[in-house]
């Protein structure tokens, strides 16, 4: 029995590698493609070049091809931009935006997030009122990723930060007006008007 497995090791590696690649196609992001490529590569070399069918040689080939596949997989990041293929926690959903796919109330509802990943649909609740289907929402509390607390973007309006920015902008316009009126300039030095100079 063991002799028949060792004699068919290249074929076994080829089949297992193909199965792993199919599983990766069914469930992208599982990283089975790297192992699948390593096994298929070693299996093909063993099938095409029978002297290389030694178990030790196949093991070394599997490691070498696997290392090369892992490097290529990481370098080219086939599932998105650099670092975006990494799994993130539910806290990363806070502040995410999306839209309502099923009317959201305090007890039920569903939203689709724009950056929701592989399965962008989430159960959602609102703190008060109702948010109708198709309305844009923002996540206030990710709730562990199971049930999001959302609020309509149009209902949020202006917050304390927006008001502070508006005050700062209004305050930064004042020195310019004073300097134009003959008052203290921006750099703090007094400026004289033509009438004051002639006295």
Automatic annotation (TrEMBL):
This protein's GO CC annotations: plasma membrane
Protein name, UniProt field: NfeD family protein
Coiled-coil region(s): none
Keywords: Membrane, Transmembrane, Transmembrane helix
Keyword Protein transport tagged: no
Region (Disordered): 166-199
Transmembrane segments: 6-23, 30-49, 55-73
Highest rank taxon of the organism: Archaea
The keyword Glycoprotein is assigned to this record: no
């Amino acid at each position: 029995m063991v002799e028949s497995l060792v004699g068919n090791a290249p074929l076994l590696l080829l089949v297992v590698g193909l199965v792993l690649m199919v599983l990766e196609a069914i469930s992208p992001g599982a990283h089975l493609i790297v192992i699948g490529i390593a096994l298929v590569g070693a299996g093909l070399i063993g099938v095409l070049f029978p002297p290389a069918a030694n178990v030790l040689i196949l093991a070394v080939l599997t490691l070498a091809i696997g290392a090369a596949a892992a490097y290529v997989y990481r370098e080219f990041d086939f599932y998105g931009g650099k670092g975006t293929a990494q799994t993130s926690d539910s806290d990363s959903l806070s502040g995410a935006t999306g839209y309502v796919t099923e009317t959201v109330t305090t007890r039920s509802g569903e939203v689709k997030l724009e950056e929701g990943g592989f399965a962008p649909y989430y159960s959602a609740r609102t703190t008060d009122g109702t948010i109708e289907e198709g309305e844009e929402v923002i996540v206030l509390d990710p709730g562990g990723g199971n049930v999001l607390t959302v609020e309509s973007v149009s209902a949020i309006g202006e917050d304390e930060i927006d008001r502070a920015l508006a005050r700062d902008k209004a305050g930064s316009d004042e020195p310019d007006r004073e300097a134009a009126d003959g008052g203290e300039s921006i750099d703090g030095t007094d400026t004289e008007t033509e009438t004051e100079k002639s006295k």
